[in-house]
Amino acid sequence: MLSRGRRFAPLLVEAASGAPLAASVGQTVTDVPTAFLSDARELAMVVLVDRERSRILLEVPNNLGWQLHFGCSAPGGDLRLAALTELTASGIEVDEPCEKGLMLFTFCNVDVAPIRVRVFEAMLRSSKSHGRFFDFGDVPYDRMWADDVVWMPALLRSGLPFSGHFVFDGPPSATSRLIQHNYESM
């Protein structure tokens, strides 16, 4: 679990509505309980890496229908355990997933609840996996959500934990425009 003693990204807008925050609020992405976010979802994303060869496995089938990342949900459950279970069921052999990041996504100008995503990194045990490997320098950011180019290069380069708040002008999709973001590497 990410340490509470570390510095986390401050919120940019009110998490549930996208409305401007009062300057004195001072909340971070860890301060907002999912229950407060009214209909918000909490999801897991697993970054599947082979650090020995400096590559990442993308385009992995998953139960969220995400095209590039491996993702899963566990309503009311343990996201790390759900991710490990889903990976195993997909035939992907990994070492124990390690929590690396916490992201909050807020969507403005649409009636869409925020999404909080816990990012785990898992080292692949075998190169025999569904999906496609990309060298760290060749990740197809142009096919990914706009936030990925903000946090993923640093995670791939350093492996350090991070947090971020990403505000999109539109619904959850790779075509929505990222209008604000805060990112903190720990």
Secondary-structure blueprint:
Blueprint: E1 41-50, E2 55-58, E3 70-73, H1 79-89, E4 98-108, E5 115-123, E6 132-135, H2 148-158, E7 162-169, E8 177-185
Parallel strand pairs: 1-5, 4-7
Antiparallel strand pairs: 1-2, 1-3, 2-6, 4-5, 7-8
What is the C-alpha radius of gyration, as a whole number of Å? 16 Å
Number of helices: 2
Distance N to C terminus: 13 Å
Beta-strand content: 25-35%
Structure characterization notes:
By secondary structure, this protein is mainly beta. 12% of the residues lie in helices and 32% in strands. The chain has 2 helices and 8 strands. It has helices at residues 79-89, 148-158; strands at 41-50, 55-58, 70-73, 98-108, 115-123, 132-135, 162-169, 177-185. The chain starts with 40 loop residues before the first strand and ends with a strand.
List keywords for this structure.
12% helix; eight-stranded mixed sheet; single chain; mainly beta; globular; 186 residues
Short account of what is shown:
The protein is mainly beta. The chain contains 2 helices and 8 strands. The chain has helices at 79-89, 148-158, and strands at 41-50, 55-58, 70-73, 98-108, 115-123, 132-135, 162-169, 177-185.
